[in-house]
TrEMBL record:
Highest taxon of source: Bacteria
Family annotation (InterPro entries): NAD(P)-bd_dom_sf, Sc_DH/Rdtase_CS, SDR_fam
Alphabetized PANTHER family for the sequence: 3-OXOACYL-[ACYL-CARRIER-PROTEIN] REDUCTASE FABG (PTHR42760:SF115), SHORT-CHAIN DEHYDROGENASES/REDUCTASES FAMILY MEMBER (PTHR42760)
GO BP, one annotated term: carbohydrate metabolic process
SUPFAM superfamilies per UniProt: NAD(P)-binding Rossmann-fold domains
One Pfam family recorded for the sequence: adh_short_C2
Keyword field contains 4Fe-4S: no
GO molecular function: oxidoreductase activity, acting on the CH-OH group of donors, NAD or NADP as acceptor
Gene3D superfamilies in the cross-refs: NAD(P)-binding Rossmann-like Domain
UniProt lineage: Bacteria, Bacillati, Bacillota, Bacilli, Bacillales
Assigned keywords, A-Z: Oxidoreductase
Protein name, UniProt field: SDR family oxidoreductase
Species this chain originates from: Paenibacillus ginsengarvi
Claim: Oxidoreductase is one of the keywords in the record: yes
Similarity comment: family membership: Belongs to the short-chain dehydrogenases/reductases (SDR) family.
């Protein structure tokens, strides 16, 4: 019995050229899914495609701006021409800033909200509509953050955007459930991804470790199991509207 076999499925990974998105994309490809890597940096996309091929998977890169409906609609058309189906959507784009609250401009606010929230909304409209109308079920996996519930200092806009992603996830889970399209989110803890390296001073690292019972950062591959689990209807067919923590216990800490 293999609950995690994704053979015959197609997964679209928006932001699949990122550190965490790329690792999860490799896992989906390694478990049999055809994987569409979507991003703006095609060189990084191709690197992830090669990693998927190295584990015996099938993948292809697609260029798109995650905040453009036209780009996402084009990618849907191109993926359907490639494999004839879309079964899994993963939303991984992320943008962050450590700007002090009183210095945040609305240009910066809009830029972060566009990538972290608007991009998820648009992808769910384009690919979610396809899944709902096709009527064969599907899985949407949004990537949230530990800052989405207790907000973290110095990342005001990012925290607000990820809190909205959690709410959107639960709303769409309710909306799409009659069509067997499941919508869940992964809440990663602190991983050495590009968007959080710049704000990790020695003092901040010490604070993070104090609040992380496992007393270490996560490794990108430690998100792979969660991604495969939520992508597989056989493994998580009755799971929707959930926020799955992979955070070393960070969310369990108070004082």
């Amino acid at each position: 019995m293999n609950l995690f076999d994704l053979s015959g499925k197609t997964a679209v990974i928006i932001g699949g050229n990122s550190t965490l998105g790329g690792s999860m994309a490799v896992a989906l490809g390694g478990h049999g899914a055809d994987v569409a890597i979507v991003g703006r940096n095609m060189e990084k996309c191709e690197q992830v495609v090669k990693q998927i091929e190295e584990v015996g998977g099938k993948a292809k890169s697609f260029s798109a701006d995650a905040t453009s409906t036209e780009d996402l609609q084009r990618v849907l058309t191109e993926v359907l021409a490639w494999t004839g189906r879309v079964d899994v959507l993963m939303n991984c784009p992320g943008k962050n800033s450590a700007t002090p609250f009183f210095e945040i401009t609305m240009e910066e606010w809009d830029s972060i909200m566009d990538v972290n929230l608007k991009g998820v909304v648009l992808a769910c409209q384009v690919f979610g509509k396809y899944m709902v109308e096709k009527g064969e079920g599907g899985s949407i996996i949004n990537i949230s953050s530990v800052s989405s519930e207790p907000p973290l200092s110095r990342v005001f806009t990012y925290s607000a955007s990820k809190a909205a992603v959690n709410n959107l996830t639960k709303n769409l889970a309710r909306e799409f459930a009659p069509s067997r399209v499941r919508v869940n989110a992964i809440i990663p803890g602190f991983f050495p991804a590009e968007q959080n390296r710049k704000i990790l001073s020695p003092e901040r690292i010490a604070s993070i470790m104090t609040h992380t019972p496992m007393n270490r950062f996560g490794e990108a591959q430690e998100l792979q199991g969660a991604a495969v689990y939520l992508a597989s209807e056989k493994a998580s067919g009755f799971v929707t509207g959930s926020l799955l923590r992979v955070d070393g216990g960070f969310g369990a800490m108070t004082i």
